[in-house]
Design brief:
It comes from Camelus bactrianus (Bactrian camel). By secondary structure, this protein is an alpha+beta fold. It is 36% helix and 24% strand. It folds into two domains: 140 residues, Fructose-1,6-Bisphosphatase, subunit A, domain 1 (Fructose-1,6-Bisphosphatase, Chain A, domain 1); 123 residues, D-Maltodextrin-Binding Protein, domain 2. It binds D-MYO-inositol-1-phosphate.
């Protein structure tokens, strides 16, 4: 059957590749770094350059579509998902890595229609891996089909997470105690690689068994959610209920069993909502 969003998907792939080249080149150059919501929430000129490139190109080609993008939201744009075709863009995921030249940096482009995620494209800029997922059509990395892990026990799971932007004592205490709870449940390990989207791509690839985080945003989640689901995995709310893209929290896993075990182990860190800022 024909895919009505084929042209959009192809545009996303081309832009993610082009944007990734810019990011890769800029990685080794001097950067001007500013902070956003906290001292650990960073932005560089390249974030803005890449976002402008992606949004201007897409806006020109698809003038009736809507956009949610990290730096536009930081500048005050509203973050609401309507029924309209909507692009959800993170120009550089892993900005802190980018600033430090730690080579785990991605461009993420997701696309939703009627509030349903249709496709996601994530470009791992330094490894030159292109992850794609399209609803009903599978998930791929550089053309190879992706499959999640089939692990059902938390005690045999490799778990990924990210710290989130807040560093106040109460948040740090909850963050560390969540990690401790998973280690006490005898997870094989907990990893923090500095990019939510690439951690989620590792999960989609079966290289890890679970992911959880409080304090991420819809642009960290949109593209990766399609890729994980199409690789056979589950993406849900930290309560164990259905995913809410705007809720700034997530649990994902290869199996529902592991996702539920992680969700049950976690204490909530309340980061508010993307659509209520
Ligand atoms: C952030 C990174 C970070 C995660 C944050 C994300 P950004 O994305 O993925 O590891 O902890 O939740 O927002 O700001 O680099 O695009």
């Amino acid at each position: 059957a024909g895919d009505p969003w084929e042209e959009c998907f192809e545009a996303a792939v081309q832009l993610a590749l082009r944007a990734g080249q810019i990011v890769r080149k800029a990685l080794s150059e001097e950067k001007r770094v500013s902070t956003k919501t906290s001292a650990a929430d960073l932005v560089t000129e390249t974030d803005q350059v890449v976002e402008d490139l992606i949004l201007s190109e897409l806006h020109q080609r698809f003038p009736s579509h809507r956009f949610i993008a990290e730096e536009a939201v930081a500048a005050g744009a509203k973050c609401v998902l309507t029924a309209s075709p909507t692009w959800i863009v993170d120009p550089i995921d892993g900005t802190c890595n980018f600033v430090h030249r730690f080579p785990t940096v991605a461009v993420s482009i997701g696309f939703a229609v009627d509030q349903e995620l249709e496709f996601g494209v994530i470009h791992d800029c330094t490894e030159e891996r292109l992850y794609t997922g399209r609803r009903g059509r599978g998930a791929f990395c550089n053309g190879q089909r992706l499959h999640v892990s089939t692990e059902t026990e938390l005690s045999r799971a490799l778990v990924l997470t990210e710290i989130g932007p807040r560093r106040d004592p109460a948040t740090l205490k909850l963050f560390l105690s969540n990690m401790e709870r998973l280690l006490r449940a005898r997870a094989h390990g907990v990893r923090v690689i500095g990019s939510s989207t690439l951690a989620l791509c590792h999960l989609a690839s079966g290289a890890a068994d679970a992911y959880y985080q409080f304090g991420l945003h819809c642009w960290d989640l949109a593209a990766a959610t399609v890729i994980i689901r199409e690789a056979g995995g589950v993406v849900m709310d930290t309560s164990g209920g259905p995913l809410d893209l705007m809720s700034c929290r997530v649990v994902a896993a290869g199996t529902r069993e592991v996702a539920m075990l992680v969700a049950q182990a976690l204490q909530t860190i309340n980061y508010g909502r993307d659509d209520e800022r």
